[in-house]
Design a protein that fits this description.
The protein is 27% helix and 27% strand. The chain is built from 7 helices and 13 strands. α1 links the parallel β1 and β2. It is globular, with a radius of gyration of 19 Å.
C-alpha cells in the first residue's frame, strides 16, 4: 500500500504577510507545495490530502486540481475551530483553530494508511521524501513513528531569527525529546539561540525537526485522546495550541512507542519572511539548472 502525504496548508503566514501557500516560486508558476508533491509522487506516495480552510478552499482547489488531475489521488479536509472538539465551547477571544496536531486530527476520516505530515510552506528536498516513503512502506508500526531530521545549519533564514524543534537523540537513533528554541540565528561562524538575556551556542549539525513526521494510521486515535485532555487543561486559553511535538513527547514519555530520527542531507528552505522569497526562487532555479526538476513541473 502506498503511503499518503498530509499537507498542512490551513495557516496564514503572520510574519510573511499573506497566504504564502499559494505564491508562485517556480518558473511556470509553481508553488513550494508543487515541488513537495512532485518529490512525493516520485518517491512512491499514492495520495495527497490537503488541510485547508473554508475561506480560501475554492481558490486553493482552482490552483491544484488542474495540475494534479490524473497524476495522484487528492482529498481536501477543512480545519475548523470546532472540528473534533466534541461540543467543547472555546472562549470568545479565540480566533483560530488549535494548532498543527489538531490539523492532523482533522484528517482522521480521510486517511486509512501510513502517512507523512509536512508544512505547506517548507521546501524539504527529494532525499527527505525518499527516506520518508521507505520508512512508511517498511518500518512504520503502531509503536514506531519517525521524524525527518535536518541539520540546523541547513534550516536558517538570512532575514531574521527562526524557531526550531531541537532534537535530543539517543545512540540508537531514537528521539528522546524535542525542545522548541526560538530566536535562532548565525552569529559570526557560530549558531546561537536566545532565551531571556542568555545566548547559547548550538552545533551546526544539531538535528532539528521541520515538522516532517511519519505516522501510523493508528496515531489518529491517540491524537484524539490527547486533544480531549488538552482541551480540558488548556481550552480556556485563547492562544493555546496543540502542536505535533506535544503528541510526540507524550508518545515517548508514556512508553507507547519510539520515534526514529532519520537524518536527511537535504537543504531546507522556506518563506518565513517576505524577504526570503527571492532566495527561494533562486534556490529553485539552481535545482532546475542542475537537473533536479523540469522547468515546467506539470505537463
Amino acid at each position: 500500500m502506498k503511503p499518503t502525504l498530509l499537507v498542512l496548508a490551513a495557516g496564514m503566514g503572520s510574519r510573511y504577510g499573506g497566504i504564502k501557500q499559494m505564491d508562485s516560486f517556480g518558473p511556470s508558476g509553481e508553488t513550494i507545495i508543487d515541488y513537495s508533491i512532485y518529490d512525493a509522487i516520485q518517491s512512491g506516495f499514492g495520495k495527497i490530502v490537503f488541510i485547508i480552510r473554508e475561506d480560501f478552499a475554492e481558490a486553493f482547489k482552482n490552483i491544484f486540481e488542474p495540475r494534479l488531475k490524473g497524476k495522484v489521488e487528492t482529498d481536501y479536509v477543512m480545519q475548523e475551530m470546532d472540528s473534533f472538539t466534541d461540543g467543547f465551547k472555546s472562549s470568545a477571544e479565540r480566533t483560530k483553530p488549535w494548532g498543527t496536531a489538531h490539523a492532523v486530527l482533522c484528517a482522521k476520516d480521510a486517511i486509512n494508511e501510513p502517512f507523512a505530515v509536512i508544512n505547506a510552506d517548507d521546501f524539504y528536498g527529494r532525499d527527505a521524501f525518499e527516506k520518508a516513503a521507505a520508512f512508511l512502506q517498511k518500518d512504520v508500526a503502531p509503536d514506531t513513528w519517525c521524524i525527518i531530521g535536518y541539520q540546523l545549519s541547513k534550516t536558517l533564514s538570512e532575514n531574521g531569527t527562526v524557531s526550531r524543534g531541537v532534537c535530543q537523540v539517543d545512540d540508537r537513533g531514537n528521539l528522546i525529546s524535542i525542545a522548541e528554541r526560538v530566536k535562532i540565528y548565525p552569529e559570526g561562524d557560530k549558531i546561537v539561540y536566545e532565551e531571556g538575556d542568555k545566548k547559547t551556542e548550538l552545533p551546526a549539525n544539531t538535528s532539528v525537526s521541520m515538522n516532517f513526521w511519519c505516522l501510523h494510521q493508528s496515531s489518529f486515535e491517540y491524537i484524539q485522546k490527547l486533544f480531549q485532555k488538552f482541551l480540558q487543561e488548556n481550552g480556556d486559553k485563547p492562544k493555546a495550541e496543540f502542536f505535533i511535538p506535544i503528541v510526540g513527547d507524550a508518545f515517548i514519555k508514556e512508553n507507547i512507542g519510539q520515534i526514529k530520527v532519520i537524518e536527511t542531507s537535504a537543504q531546507w528552505f522556506g518563506v518565513t519572511y517576505k524577504e526570503d522569497a527571492p532566495g527561494v526562487k533562486q534556490s529553485i532555479e539552481a535545482l532546475i539548472e542542475g537537473g533536479a526538476y523540469p522547468k515546467q513541473l506539470w505537463d
